[in-house]
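My main concern about presentation is that the manuscript never shows what a single data entry looks like. In essence, backbone conformation is discretised, so a fold becomes a row of integers matching the chain in length. An entry of this sort, consisting of the sequence and the corresponding backbone structure tokens, reads as follows:
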Amino acid sequence: MKIVFMGTPAFAVPSLQMLMDEGYEVVAVVTQPDRPQGRKKILAPSPVKEAALSLGLPVLQPERMRKPEAVAELAVYEPDLIVTAAYGQILPKAVLDLPRNGCVNVHGSLLPKYRGGAPIQRSIINGEKVTGVTLMYMAEGLDTGDMISRVEVAIEDEDTSGTMFEKLSLAGRDLLKSEMPRLVNGLVQATPQDDSQATFAPNLNREDERLDWNAGSRDNYNRIRGLVPFSGAFTLWNGETFKVWASKIPAEQKSTDSAPGTVLSVTEHGVEVKTGDGSLLLTTVQPAGKKAMSAADFSRGGVMKPGTVLG
């Protein structure tokens, strides 16, 4: 049973490691090309590439999996099964048709909800209490394939995208491990998705990161934790980006007629900002050109005064 594994971020690494630990024959790993990272834009390998090289596995990095030469390079390995987890590209029919046992995907949501590239972040931003992992057969559409099995995972109020990526990564590994004995024996019975129940989770853009002070405190709280530890959320202060990496909803809301976005207080406990239905305490912030800092460190600078309007 020749298996090709396809994945890119750290989310996929536990699934790859499990396949190796369980003795499955992974003949190659496909991942995204090295990308510029950090301020110096130094090319860096994906976490999956690093893991694959440490395991002594061949690594393929096509810029576009749809190109005939990329398909031909993959076909050389004659895979019986392709396993993907957050690979980052939609596979063409030519690839889907390669393995006799099909292509399966470890997807970080309870399909058909949150089809797309950012299901974990958007489930938190939208205030979901439960998400999960779906193991599915891949089809030509975006996360439209038949479902093999699913597992639910709770989203706690303190969870961020970072903590949920880790939880779902391990849940996906365990789900794949439980189904692998069936998958290597041939195609298994799967359940078609109800397309009428589908929701979508497109990749995040700059506007998704912007805080809306006219919205409620809970909405902004969820947006912030849904963007941590990746981009962080932001607002504007004196026309410059002011990032927010952590926040709290105060137990006691101040009674004020101030406009949403108005800074109510700046203390060691946080920058309290008026929202559409109350206030939000910003506890870790990052002014433009500075490193992220605690509210205590920021307040000591005395540069932001109550009455300042953000956004």
Observations:
- Residues 82 and 123 are 27 Å apart (CA to CA).
- The mean pLDDT is 96.
- The radius of gyration is 22 Å.
- The domain at 2-197 is CATH 3.40.50.170 (Rossmann fold).
